[in-house]
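Thread amino acids onto this structure.
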C-alpha cells in the first residue's frame, strides 16, 4: 500500500477525527499501512483505529486523550497536537465529498499499483497461473 501524500493525510485525518459518518468510512477505506510515512502519526492513527473499533464512533474531543496516552516523545506529541488543533479549526469548511473521492482514488490507484508490481514479478518468474489470479482480482 502506498503512503498517503501529505495533503490527503491532513484531509483524511480531519474526517477520521471530527466527522462522525465519514470518519468511519476513512477507517474502513484506508489501511493502517498507508499511514506509515511518519511513525508518530502512524502510532496515533493506530490508536484512533482501535478507539473506533472499540466504541464504533470517532474520537472527536477524545483525540487529545488518545494523543496523551501514546508512548511517543514529547516533541512529537506537541507537533501532532498542533496539527490536530489546526485540523479541528479548519474541518468545518471541509468538502467531505471531495475528500472521500480523493481517498477512494488514492486507494484504487494504490491497489492497482500493487497488482501491477506483483504481476510483473510473477511474469518474470513464469508463474502464469498466479499472474492470472492477480489480474482477475485487480
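Threaded sequence (138 positions):
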Amino acid at each position: 500500500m502506498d503512503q498517503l501524500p501529505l495533503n490527503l493525510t491532513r484531509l483524511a485525518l480531519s474526517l477520521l477525527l471530527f466527522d462522525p459518518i465519514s470518519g468511519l468510512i476513512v477507517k474502513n477505506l484506508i489501511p493502517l499501512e498507508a499511514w506509515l510515512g511518519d511513525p508518530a502519526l502512524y502510532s496515533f492513527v493506530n490508536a484512533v483505529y482501535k478507539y473506533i473499533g472499540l466504541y464504533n464512533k470517532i474520537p472527536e474531543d477524545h483525540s487529545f486523550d488518545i494523543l496523551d496516552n501514546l508512548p511517543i516523545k514529547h516533541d512529537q506529541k506537541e507537533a501532532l497536537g498542533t496539527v490536530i488543533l489546526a485540523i479541528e479549526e479548519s474541518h468545518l469548511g471541509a468538502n467531505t465529498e471531495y475528500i472521500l473521492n480523493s481517498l477512494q482514488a488514492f486507494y484504487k490507484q494504490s491497489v492497482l499499483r500493487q497488482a501491477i508490481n506483483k504481476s510483473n514479478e510473477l511474469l518474470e518468474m513464469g508463474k502464469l497461473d498466479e499472474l492470472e489470479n492477480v489480474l482477475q482480482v485487480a
